[in-house]
Amino acid sequence: MTTITTRTVEYPADGLTMIGHLALPAGVDRRPAVLLGPEGMGLSDVERQRADALAELGYVALAFDLHGGRYLGDPEEMLARCLPLLADPDRMRGIGHAALDVLRTEPRTDPDRIAAVGYGTGGAVGLELGRGGVSLRAIGTVNATTTGRPGESARIGCPVWAGVGSEDPIMPPAQRNAFTAEMQAAGVDWRLTVYGGALHAFHHPPVDHPVVPGVGYHPRHAQRAWRDVVDLLAECLPVTEDLGHDPGQHAGPGH
């Protein structure tokens, strides 16, 4: 396993001081980078460990913050913050741009090779960056088949992959259909993976606090969704693009 380094980064966004988690791969050269967004509860060790796993694969990874360093384990508090946020594309873009600025200014980051991967609210932020015209190599989301303002998805210039549980009541079939119709009408290179029998946040290990109805962990599909994310990055943002001296450094199975 390669040696990675991590550090906490603070930056302003949405009127708050955000506290993100930056993971750097071994070496000193510039690498492709991934902006990693958390579920509505906020940044936790789950996303930090995913950022670390991406760094082990050779990416610079920033797991960004949604709530000013807070993790909202109370479902009512989480919804009270996230629902207005999800209804305000400009606020979501502001949170995304602030984190993107941190990632781009990291010396190890190749600023021309960045992808956004996000879960729930964090995935919606990534989609809004694309709708806002940010140049990304890929957008990957889980539980975030959110729609945007009319016509803006035509500004998405990269492949979009979305994963969702078939039994997710928060992202039901009608919502999924509206999302895919928007992507298709905009001419986006899109894919949708439906994980049979999975609920909302199926990728997230069980938590020790109450959750909103319709949430549940599905270990098998959680592993599959992670592999799908890694495969998306391997296709659209290959680490080996400028690293011919290290053919073993690739996004393969096992992470």
TrEMBL record:
InterPro entries reported in the protein's UniProt record: AB_hydrolase_fold (IPR029058), Dienelactn_hydro (IPR002925), FrsA_esterase (IPR050261)
Keywords: Hydrolase
GO molecular function: hydrolase activity
Superkingdom per UniProt: Bacteria
Keyword GTP-binding assigned: no
Presence of keyword Hydrolase: yes
Pfam family, one: DLH
Domain Dienelactone hydrolase: 20-235
Transmembrane segments: none
Alphabetized PANTHER family for the sequence: DIENELACTONE HYDROLASE DOMAIN-CONTAINING PROTEIN (PTHR22946:SF0), DIENELACTONE HYDROLASE DOMAIN-CONTAINING PROTEIN-RELATED (PTHR22946)
Family label: Belongs to the AB hydrolase superfamily.
UniProt-recorded name of the protein: Dienelactone hydrolase family protein
Native species: Streptomyces goshikiensis
